[in-house]
Amino acid sequence: xxxxxxxxxxxxxxxxxxxxxxxxxxxxxxxxxxxxxxxxxxxxxxxxxxxxxxxxxxxxxxxxxxxxxxxxxxxxxxxxxxxxxxxxxxxxxxxxxxxxxxxxxxxxxxxxxxxxxxxxxxxxxxxxxxxxxxxxxxxxxxxxxxxxxxxxxxxxxxxxxxxxxxxxxxxxxxxxxxxxxxxxxxxxxxxxxxxxxxxxxxxxxxxxxxxxxxxxxxxxxxxxxxxxxxxxxxxxxxxxxxxxxx
Length: 246
Ligand code: NAP
Fold this sequence. Notes:
Elements: E1 6-9, H1 15-26, E2 30-35, H2 39-51, E3 56-60, H3 66-80, E4 85-88, H4 103-131, E5 134-139, H5 142-146, H6 152-172, E6 177-184, H7 190-193, H8 197-205, H9 215-226, E7 237-240
Parallel strand pairs: 1-2, 1-4, 2-3, 4-5, 5-6, 6-7
Helix pairs in contact: 1-2, 1-9, 3-4, 4-6
The protein binds NADP nicotinamide-adenine-dinucleotide phosphate.
């Protein structure tokens, strides 16, 4: 039963995170809609959820900031008394070839994507251990599994998330906490809107289903992993890529 559970979805002001937040809320899950820069969009997500009869609140926090994440988790636990589901979705890209990549672009992607995921798990793990239950869902990527030229920072962060997921699943599993990674292929969002039509066509030619994915494809898997049906799945990296990785 998901009704009344509490979930934090990081980076939920748009794209995949927004879709996960909306999908969870439809099942009666109370959703904390985390964002970093875009308050107006996060507030809109909350209003949409409330208009559909759900419960949500927006919370601004840079997941790369260790202390700020600690404050966010304290706030959530004090207010809601539990956090049942954590979705580490916040992520950025700063693409460029290795030879041209600046240290700043490398560090910022690792800080938000990988350290942000660590920060959130770190600061909620004690609470989840106390609860003796919890679901942690981390957003990796096909790029973390196979690599991609021009994205060494992003690939390193998403591969790191896979290692983090597996090790955390082993550490927390005995207390009923599952930890899994979703590895989307190319999903239509602002992140992929930045690609040229030529790059998109090239990508689509490598996908068995011959189309980009939609945010719902990822949100439906997140919901399954959060539900009772997903209770014996842990430490896995599950692709949602239309057969791109074949
Ligand atoms: P998106 O549309 O660019 O949205 C990114 C979200 O992350 C926004 O809500 C943004 O909020 C938030 N965010 C960025 N930096 C943050 C920070 N420091 N702290 C907190 N929130 C932050 O991205 P998306 O395409 O939906 O991707 C979502 C996740 O799926 C990412 O982890 C991405 O790597 C992964 N993924 C996406 C694809 C794809 O094809 N789209 C494929 C594989 C994996 P603000 O604007 O408020 O900062």
